[in-house]
Structures are given as structure tokens and as C-alpha cells.
Specification:
Elements: E1 4-7, H1 11-23, E2 27-33, H2 40-44, E3 47-52, H3 63-73, E4 77-79, H4 89-97, E5 101-102, H5 107-114, H6 116-125, H7 141-151, E6 155-163, E7 166-171, H8 174-192, E8 197-201, E9 207-215, E10 221-233, E11 236-242, H9 249-266, E12 270-279, E13 282-289, H10 296-303, H11 307-315, E14 332-339, E15 351-352, E16 355-357, E17 364-368, E18 375-376, E19 383-391, H12 394-407, E20 409-411, H13 417-423, H14 427-431, H15 438-444
Helix pairs in contact: 4-5, 7-8
């Protein structure tokens, strides 16, 4: 086991990783930009190293500075959290070249799953169902038109190296296809430096279902059930549930087995998430995230398994502590992402927190690195906390989340708390009958 781990991230996820390390008796090193000198993860780590100015490109994405911080402090491993360098195969290669351990999958696995076209083919070969579409990148508008005609409109054009909705366009008819292709390629080139795109059938009212897995170096793969992440705005998740109100037990068993069987064939290592679109009783693979997910706490609530702890153990060469038959998923869990944003326009709202009260009680967890007087910097993601509740059933969970949202006080800035208070009164949310397009339609119909 490692004696010391460097946490190459910031905010609530850095604090989350620090907690797991502390409970395992592992010393921690926090890296930070000059803007984060007073951050909670810096205060609570055993050691800290400033790695640059506020700009992420000069600090949290500064690979030489992070490696140097390891050498200075004697850290043996790096946990990248999510975002920043967590899905950089190049960074994982560099970590390994310096005789350090990257807490995550192998560089080759990150590289494979980071290429959406290659990932789709790999999981298809391993037995995971995929959305009908092109077998690879489309080379011309004429080829795209033939494929679109074959699978039927509307079609979705996606960047091969995409993520977060960038390089993604919908064509509802042949007349719209050429412009959608051109726009998607331009966006992909600007965002990822690579303009390859591919086509998929555009599903009309799908849900976003993902399966959390853990895999060790001894051929063991387990899943921790599914999460429903269908409440989204511009392909960004706002609220997640485990399990999905759209699935029954037989469907849960089926998709869990399909995913674990496939990842055994692939030889995957560490934590990961297979994401699907789900419509009319069928699952369609969309991507795999080779890292810890923002929404991992809802799976922890249901399973009682510390996912970060298991990541660290696997990276240290140990077996998973549990087998699939040992995992008993209990109750229901919901996570609301609390962002420093206007709740309805989503305009970022950095600034100083003048009041802070954290909710508590049975089944309530608030993952956050904020505190009274903390200044939220304008340079990073607007996520300030994740409010997670667990209950014996979905109704209890909804009522507990309403109560916890009413207790949560974050003064001095705007947050998305009022949005969730409003959403949890809506019949479609209460009944669990929403899809990935529901929130954007709802927001468009709100009084201006």
C-alpha cells in the first residue's frame, strides 16, 4: 500500500479523495494554484505545494509541476479525481515513466475509451449494444447522407474525441445534414484539435442510464448498480438517481451482467462508468468514462462501498474487497449538483460566501469544500457542492431531499438551490417520468 498520495485536483473532489486516504492511513499532498491557497483541501492535506497561477493550463494541467510536486514530497501515487488530467493518457504515461502510480486505468485503456469511435467498436466486440450508426468516422458528406438514409432521420453527429456536448449536432432532415456536419467538425477541431465525426441514430426520448464498475488486476469485475442521469441541460448533468425509476430488477440484472462480462473481456482496471441511452426497453452504449464520476456518491449510498478506497487498493495491486454476490444495493439515492450559478439563467456567480449552513440528519451527505467566508474563484467549474440523500425508497428520498434543500444555506452568491426546490415539486420529477430533453423544455417554458 502507498504511504503518500498526491491529489491532482481541487475543490470537493480533492477533499473527497483526502478523506478516503485519511481513513486508510495514507498521507496526502494537495497541489493548488495561487487562487486556491486558502482552499479547504489545502488546509486538510498533510502537505501542500503551489503549482502555478490561477489559470488551469498553468496549474492543474501543468504536468511538469505536478510531477515535481511528487518528487519534492516523496508521494508515490497520483489520484487525478475527475476533470483536468483524469482522462489524459499522456499524463498517465508520464506518471508511469517517473516510477509513480497513476490511480486509474492503464494509459492504453484511457486512450481507447477517449476515442469515441474506437470505444464504440471495442465495446460492441465485447457484447455491449450500441446505437445504430456509422462504423467509424465519416469521410464525406455523401457517405454521411447514405448512412443517415439507411438508419433514418433524425441523426446525431458526434465528435470522435468529444465530450460535454461539444462537437455534437442534430440533423432532422437531409437538408440540415451538410451544415450540421460542418458545424460539428469545426467545433470538434476547436475543442479537441481533431475534427473526425461519426453518425448515430438520434433517439427521441431516451433516458441516460450509466453503470458503475470496479475492476482489479486479477480478472474480477463488479458493478454497483445503475444511475439515472437524465435530468440534463446542454448535455451537462444536474441531478442523478440510483437506481433508475425507469428500470425493473430484471433489466438491472441484465445490463449489469452485460457490462461486467464485457469489461472482463476488455481487461479493464480500476473504476469506470459505462454510459447508455435507454429507450423502449433497449440500452445503447454512448461512451465510457475511465475515471471517478461526479455522481459516484449515489452508488456509494446504495452499496456501502467506498469507490475511492477501492480505486486506491486496485492501483496498489490488491484485489477488490468484494465479489458481486456480496454487493447488496439498498434503498434509493438522489444527488443534486449545487452550482455557483443563477438558478434559471445559469450565469456563473463567483464571489464570497457570507453565510453557510450545511444540512444534516439521517441519510444526508453534502460533499463540498466551501466554508463561511470562502471566496469562490472565477477560474474553475461552478460546482460548489453535491447534496446527496439516501432513503428506504424513492418517495422517502424525494421528501428527504426537499427537507435538506430547505436547510442548506449558501449566502453571498447565487446557487442552483432554488431550481431544485422548484423541480422537486413537479409531477414528472415526482413520478420519475422524465428524459434527457425534459429539463431544457421545462426551462424554455418558464416565465421570463
Amino acid at each position: 500500500m502507498f504511504d503518500k498520495i498526491l491529489i491532482a485536483n481541487r475543490g470537493e473532489i480533492a477533499l473527497r479523495i483526502n478523506r478516503a486516504c485519511k481513513e486508510m492511513g495514507i498521507a496526502t499532498v494537495a497541489v493548488h494554484s495561487t487562487a486556491d491557497a486558502d482552499a479547504m483541501h489545502v488546509r486538510l492535506a498533510d502537505e501542500c505545494v503551489c503549482i502555478g497561477p490561477p489559470s488551469p493550463s498553468l496549474s492543474y494541467l501543468n504536468m511538469p509541476a505536478i510531477i515535481a510536486a511528487c518528487e519534492i514530497t516523496g508521494a508515490q501515487a497520483i489520484h487525478p479525481g475527475y476533470g483536468f488530467l483524469s482522462e489524459s493518457a499522456r499524463f498517465a504515461d508520464i506518471v508511469n515513466e517517473h516510477n509513480l502510480t497513476f490511480i486509474g486505468p492503464t494509459p492504453d485503456q484511457i486512450r481507447l475509451m477517449g476515442d469515441k469511435i474506437a470505444a464504440k467498436q471495442a465495446v460492441k466486440d465485447a457484447g455491449i449494444p450500441t446505437v445504430p450508426g456509422s462504423d467509424g468516422a465519416v469521410e464525406s458528406d455523401e457517405e454521411a447522407a447514405r448512412i443517415a438514409q439507411g438508419i433514418g432521420y433524425p441523426v446525431l453527429i458526434k465528435a470522435s474525441a468529444g465530450g460535454g456536448g461539444r462537437g455534437m449536432k442534430v440533423a432532422k432532415s437531409p437538408e440540415e445534414l451538410s451544415l450540421a456536419l460542418s458545424t460539428a467538425r469545426t467545433e470538434a477541431k476547436a475543442a479537441f484539435g481533431y475534427d473526425a465525426v461519426y453518425l448515430e441514430k438520434y433517439l427521441q426520448k431516451p433516458r441516460h442510464i450509466e453503470v458503475q464498475i470496479l475492476a482489479d488486476g486479477f480478472g474480477h469485475v463488479v458493478h454497483l448498480g445503475e444511475r439515472d442521469c437524465s435530468l440534463q441541460r446542454r448535455h451537462q448533468k444536474l441531478m442523478e438517481e440510483a437506481g433508475s425509476p425507469a428500470l425493473n430488477d430484471s433489466q438491472r440484472y441484465e445490463i449489469g451482467k452485460v457490462v461486467t462480462d464485457a469489461l472482463k473481456k476488455i481487461g479493464y482496471l480500476g473504476a469506470g462508468t459505462i454510459e447508455f441511452l435507454y429507450e423502449d426497453g433497449k440500452f445503447y452504449f454512448i461512451e465510457m468514462n475511465t475515471r471517478l464520476q461526479v455522481e459516484h456518491p449515489v452508488s456509494e449510498a446504495l452499496s456501502g462501498i467506498d469507490i475511492v478506497r477501492e480505486q486506491i487498493r486496485v492501483a496498489a495491486g490488491l484485489e477488490l474487497e468484494c465479489k458481486q454476490e456480496d454487493i447488496k444495493l439498498s434503498g434509493h439515492a438522489i444527488e443534486c449538483r449545487i452550482n455557483a450559478e443563477n438558478p434559471f439563467t445559469f450565469m456563473p456567480s463567483p464571489g464570497q460566501i457570507t453565510q453557510f449552513h450545511q444540512p444534516g440528519g439521517l441519510g444526508v451527505r453534502f460533499d463540498s469544500a466551501i466554508y463561511d467566508g470562502y471566496k469562490i474563484p472565477p477560474y474553475y467549474d461552478s460546482l460548489v457542492g453535491k447534496l446527496v440523500v439516501h432513503g428506504r425508497n424513492r418517495y422517502e428520498c424525494l421528501m428527504r431531499m426537499r427537507r435538506a434543500l430547505d436547510e442548506l444555506v449558501i449566502g453571498g452568491i447565487e446557487t442552483t438551490i432554488p431550481l431544485f426546490q422548484k423541480l422537486l415539486q413537479e409531477r414528472d420529477i415526482i413520478e420519475g417520468s422524465y428524459n434527457i430533453h425534459w429539463l431544457e423544455k421545462y426551462l424554455a417554458n418558464l416565465p421570463k
